[in-house]
Amino acid sequence: MASQQDIRRRIRSVQNTRKITRALELVAGARLRRAVLRIEELRPYADKMMELMAGTAGAASSIRGLALLQRRYVSRTAVVPITGNRGLAGPFNSQVLRRAFQLEREERGAGREVRWLVAGRKGASTLRFRRYRVEDDWSGFADRPAYSDAQAIAHRLAELYVAEEVDRVLIVYNKFVSPLVQKVTVQEVLPITEEVLGRGEEDERQERAFRGDFIYEPEPEEILQRLLPVYLETELYRALLESAASFLGAQMSAMRNASKNAGELIDRLTLAMNRARQAEITQEILEVVAGADALAG
Fold first, then answer.
1. How far from 275 is each of 6, 260, 283, CA to CA, in Å?
2. 142/97 Cα distance (integer angstroms)
3. Separation between Cα atoms, residue 248 and residue 33, nearest integer Å
4. How many Å apart are CA 70 and CA 162, to the nearest integer?
5. Which end of the chain is less crowded, N or C, counting CB atoms within 10 A of the terminal residue's CB?
6. Lowest mean pLDDT, pick from 8-17, 71-80, 209-218, 276-285
7. What are the residues whose beta carbons fall under 8 Å from the beta carbon of 14, sequence distance 6 or more?
8. pTM of the model
9. What are phi and psi of 109, to 5 degrees?
10. CA-CA-CA-CA dihedral for 277, 278, 284, 288, to nearest 10
């Protein structure tokens, strides 16, 4: 049995660890509220962007010549996992990478080449450890992404797609549902689908209304050509914000569980220390009694 001194040392160590996990939980909780607010603030902008694109597409005589809308035979797929820069967030990073590797197996099984680009240090280090070639990686903004970060990623992805170095781009990220639930999501961001521009019957009525209400200068095709990269940036920014909120939620939950486990461990160690102390007292009493019997004899 361990001595009282050893058990006390372990209790102090666990107590110090619990202080750290509690602090991380509080910090993650405060940042999570701000991250969720940023997601909510983006929604009106994204909705207005979709409305503007649908109206402009309806006014355009043809959208077939726009590079980011061009669909072609897929022989090369770019997979872009969005991970965190740090750990201590439960399965946040591992579930994204697990889904990304599953996508790779599916694409290779279909005879397609897979090219890797990654956001987040954890994803980049894991891919390089497994000896994958990483075309590009971005880091330093996992829990506080800025729009400029999304622009950098979008510019590179559009560049690869327009140059026909890749035929499809898939991003893999954690979508924020609640602090306890993060859903791994796969989204095809390139090519941009025509459904995004709204091609249904209701959308056609809206498009006719747009054509009647607006005079476009320059031509709608030119405006749409400028809007499509902005749409791509917006989608990536939304994914980065969702991933950031998911990371903070996962970290908060993981640190709360760690603090709870530390408390339970402290209780067990305290009980073990009390038993050790009682055993030492009992041993001392037995030694005193034995000594008294020896003197009396």
1. 13, 23, 12
2. 15
3. 9
4. 9
5. C
6. 209-218
7. 262, 265, 266, 269
8. 0.79
9. -65, -30
10. 160
pLDDT in tens, 7-62: 788 888 888 888 888 888 888 888 888 888 888 888 888 878 777 777 777 666 66
Tens-place pLDDT, residues 115-128? 999 998 888 999 99
- 91: nearest Cα among 183, 28, 24: 183
Beta bridge partners of 173: 185
pLDDT band, very low/low/confident/very high, at 203 (cuts 50, 70, 90): very low
- What is the model's pLDDT at position 53? 76
What six digits make up the tokens of 30?
């405060």
Question: In angstroms, rounded to a whole number, what is the distance separating the alpha carbons of residues 253 and 259?
Answer: 10
Listing from the earlier edge strand, what are the strands of the sheet with 134-138? 134-138, 113-119, 76-81, 168-178, 181-190
Distance of alpha carbon 169 from alpha carbon 63, whole angstroms: 20
**What's residue 213's pLDDT?**
58
pLDDT digits (tens, 9 = 90+) for 142-201: 678 888 999 999 999 999 998 889 999 999 999 988 888 889 999 998 888 777 766 544
